[in-house]
TrEMBL record:
Name by which UniProt lists this protein: RNA polymerase sigma factor
One Pfam family hit: Sigma70_r2
Organism of origin: Oceanidesulfovibrio marinus
All copies of domain RNA polymerase sigma-70 region, residue ranges: 11-71
Coiled-coil regions listed in the entry: none
Length: 178
């Protein structure tokens, strides 16, 4: 697999993971872009079977950095007041709002959309480590070993956090999945 093909194969999932972590489109795009640049700069010459966990370690670090910056920013804003929103006056991208001609029925889309929103909200409520493990194991299908490497923790810790996250999500989402 070429480096370009690898990056194309993970860009959508990496974006969804970053978006689930931060809840803001532009910040998620920035995190993924930064992770990709760092990955290419530092690890492009590594064997391709090492790329996934290495990339997700970098993305995990970007997400952690984002949490830290947000924490500092919130403390700072508590002292001086919140700055004006950067989203005011932004234009809508017509390509993002164009209808999908191959889309499923509106009823099915509504059910899946509601279920996905419930899932996204439930995932965001998980503790940070459980959320990270769940996204890497459940969405990205990394092995326990790869997840442990990406998050710099033990395999036992990955298993424990994944189990707790799945149990919590099952309790919260029992009635929501179509």
């Amino acid at each position: 697999m070429t480096l370009e093909a690898f990056l194309e194969s993970i860009e959508g999932r990496a974006y969804r993971m970053a978006y689930a972590a931060c809840g803001h489109r532009e910040d998620a795009l920035d995190m993924v872009q930064d992770a990709m640049f760092k990955f290419v700069d530092k690890y492009a010459k590594r064997p391709s079977d090492e790329w996934r966990p290495l990339f997700y370690r970098i993305l995990h670090n970007r997400i952690t950095d984002s949490y830290r910056r947000r924490s500092v920013r919130e403390r700072w804003n508590g002292f001086i007041g919140k700055p004006p929103s950067l989203d005011e006056g932004t234009e809508v991208d017509p390509f993002q709002t164009a209808p999908d001609m191959d889309a499923p029925t509106p009823e099915h889309s509504a059910k899946v959309g509601d279920a996905f929103q419930a899932l996204q909200a439930a995932v965001q409520k998980l503790p940070e480590r459980q959320r990270q493990v769940f996204l890497l194991r459940g969405w990205e299908e990394l092995s326990v070993k790869e997840t442990a490497f990406a998050l710099k923790c033990s395999e036992g810790s990955v298993k424990t956090h994944f189990s707790r996250a799945v149990n919590t999500l099952r309790e919260q989402l029992g009635d929501h999945w179509p």
